[in-house]
Amino acid sequence: MRTALVHDSLTQYGGAEKVLEELHAVFPEAPVFVPNIRREVLPSTYDDWDIRTTWLDRVPGSRTHHRSMAPLYPFAMHGIDLSGYDLVISSSFNFAHNVSTGPQTRHVCYCHSPSRFLWDYNGYAEREKFGRIKRACVEASLPLLRSLDLAAAQGVDGFIATSGLVRDRIRKIYRRRARVLPPPIDLSAFHIARQPERYFLLIMRLVGWKRADIAVEACNALNLPLVVAGDGREFSRLKALAGPSVRFVGRVDGAEKARLLSECAALILPAMEDFGITPLEAMASGRPVIAYGAGGVLDTVQPGRTGVLFPEQTSESLVAALRRFDPDEYAPHAIRAHAARFDRRHFRAAIGALARDPANGRAKVQPQRGEMPAMTPGLVLAATPGALQPAGMERHVP
């Protein structure tokens, strides 16, 4: 079967790109189509891939200022020629599902989320601190981009969602059903430390919407040791905000990341993530997670067993959770056993079966409410019935 992979872009490296790596491992001969690429931010393993870019990659500034080019991405995707393929798998968090496929080509979208840029625009613009001129320019294009996005979603033969939260968004925005297949981790890359230390850990891209400031302020208030691993646009502001108990170590990966995760008292996640791979990596290291109780962590963090959920996205709410937290109440091997359910070997088996399964087809949401089908035991999460929420509103822990 001739297969092609499509990804939103390769201009940064994060959780979506790790999922792309797993898709490529299942379909190693498949070319990867992307609008543009910045090779300097990618691991060297990408050098051996067949990566094909579009005309957007030749537009000056499209690699380094890719957010400003957002209105061009749907058109770049539409221009990709996929006529020679039997199966197309798009890995989409913005516009990858906008590719056009013929009647003989099956298009399966692994959806990290419908575009926040389009469907949670006010929140997105506020978090990214859009100025008045930028807001005016973007808002003028939103009606067209949303229309294109909705039309593109109807051209997808089957949706796979990363979490129950994303499944609900797909259902609300696109009126399409989706099966849930969580992103994987590589369990073998992480280990349990003999003697964890007492510092708390924050690992993330330092951008506004991830709310790293909440963790910094909470640890300032309690004078708790916090290690911040990551870089991004918020670095300077966070450094100025940090007290003496907060230490910045920059971006980490590989063995150093595994060491920090295994030796921390707990990982802190103040962001509302669509899924969240890093919390699972912490659990694979036997360490509990203290997370804002909304979004994807509701599918992965078990309060009292693998971590703590705090109810409000504020430093005060996190302070209260930190006061209650006792790392000695958690069993590292039980936490790691929970994380093992999300190991990549399960994902690889499931994604290959789902992508080829005609039953994962063009189901649309009917007016009546009902329960979604479960899939692979142990990994694929059964969809549970619940009230639909407006775009931009999320499930929260009570």
Plain-language structure description:
Strand 11 (266-269), helix 10 and strand 12 form a beta-alpha-beta unit. The chain folds into two domains: 3-184 and 344-356, Rossmann fold (3-Layer(aba) Sandwich), CATH 3.40.50; 187-341, Rossmann fold (3-Layer(aba) Sandwich), CATH 3.40.50.2000. Helices cover 33% and strands 13% of the residues. It has helices at 15-26, 73-78, 116-119, 121-127, 132-154, 164-174, 212-222, 235-241, 254-263, 277-284, 315-324, 332-339, 344-356; strands spanning 3-7, 32-33, 51-52, 87-92, 106-111, 158-161, 178-180, 200-203, 226-229, 246-248, 266-269, 289-292, 307-310. Residues 367-396 have low confidence and may be disordered. Helix 1 (15-26) crosses helix 13 and helix 7 (212-222) crosses helix 11 (315-324). It contains 13 helices and 13 strands.
Uncertain runs are: 367-396
Largest sheet, strands/sense/barrel: 7 strands, parallel
Overall shape: globular
**What's the architecture of the largest domain in CATH terms?**
3-Layer(aba) Sandwich
Helix-residue proportion: 25-40%
Q: Give the amount of beta strand, in percent.
A: 5-15%
Rg (CA only): 21 Å
Give the topology, please.
Elements: E1 3-7, H1 15-26, E2 32-33, E3 51-52, H2 73-78, E4 87-92, E5 106-111, H3 116-119, H4 121-127, H5 132-154, E6 158-161, H6 164-174, E7 178-180, E8 200-203, H7 212-222, E9 226-229, H8 235-241, E10 246-248, H9 254-263, E11 266-269, H10 277-284, E12 289-292, E13 307-310, H11 315-324, H12 332-339, H13 344-356
Parallel strand pairs: 1-2, 1-4, 2-3, 4-5, 5-6, 6-7, 8-9, 8-11, 9-10, 11-12, 12-13
